[in-house]
Specification:
Blueprint: H1 8-17, H2 19-39, E1 44-54, H3 69-77, H4 79-84, H5 87-99, H6 106-111, E2 113-118, E3 121-128, H7 131-155, E4 162-164, H8 181-192
Antiparallel strand pairs: 1-3, 1-4, 2-3
Amino acid sequence: MTSNEFSPYEYFNKVIGLWWLVALATFLGGVFGYIFIHFHPPEYEATATYIVTIDLNRFPFQGVREDMLQYNEDMALNITNGVLLSQEVRDKVINQVKTRGISLTADDLLQNYTIERKQDTWELRYRSRDPLEAQEVVNIWADFGYQAMSSWQESGKAANYVVFQPPALADIPQEPVLYDRNKVILAGAIIGF
């Protein structure tokens, strides 16, 4: 074998010969992860869920092309997203949260939320460094959102064949979704390795 070729065996022997350097780098990576976590506290995510369906007995099939049925159903169901993000609902959420002693701006609300549709289930999520705050904000938002959904339906802004179920409110999140201390330290150690 020429000296220019890579040999895994020789490389492995070289690394084993420098075991102390590998151990030191792994340790320093773990220390870096430990330091990192002190500048980035863990974030918790609370999730409230809605079931939103279509009442097929009231759905207007006549005059709708068959290939457009799914599109029309999706558009009707997407009113859920529109209601939850409406200025009216966001303002109510921010005002209610402030009365409970939580400092929240419109930017904070919009930077830390997620709305995701999974078939007929809609998940409204909110992230915060405080698990109780995450739960409280998302539950207030879910309640005001449901009230607005009902109101929009009564006023005709939402189709009458869309069925909004009351939300399943969020529990207190137990595990962080970002910056879990042990995972960050392990990641630092692996990077150091």
